[in-house]
Amino acid sequence: MALKGINAYKKGNLKQDVSTADPHRLTLMLMQGALDRLAYAKGAMERREYEAKSEYLSKATAIVMHLRDTLDIEIGGEMAQNMYALYDYMVELITTANAKNSLQSIDEVISLLTPIRDAWVQIPESAKQEAFEAQRQKHAAV
User: Fold this and answer.
1) What is the CA radius of gyration of the chain?
2) CATH code (residue 29)
3) For residue range 23-81, what is the model confidence (pLDDT) as tens digits?
């Protein structure tokens, strides 16, 4: 019973965090959310809880697809194209992990996504503002 209250509290905090987060923070939250779901899926797989495993992997897939689909290829150029291909590969690995109960596939996704998340954390504030401004100007011109 206490866990339900804790989970409700966490959901409330998450909604508040999302509503006040800038685009950089939202992306970071998505990356961390995907990594969390992958870790939960590994645990479920190890415990032979296949329904939970599938649910966590489905959520991780949705997050990675969202990260992929929100890349701005025009502004990001070759780097964004490379990230798109990498996210696409991660989706394939997650699909394989789900179909074949492959811990190795999950580990590979984690090993690919973790350094991206870590690098994202290190982005200087000035670069965040510059990217936000470029995005704002692009949408203002449309």
Assistant:
1) 17
2) 1.20.120.340
3) 888 999 999 999 999 999 999 999 999 999 999 999 999 999 999 999 989 888 999 99
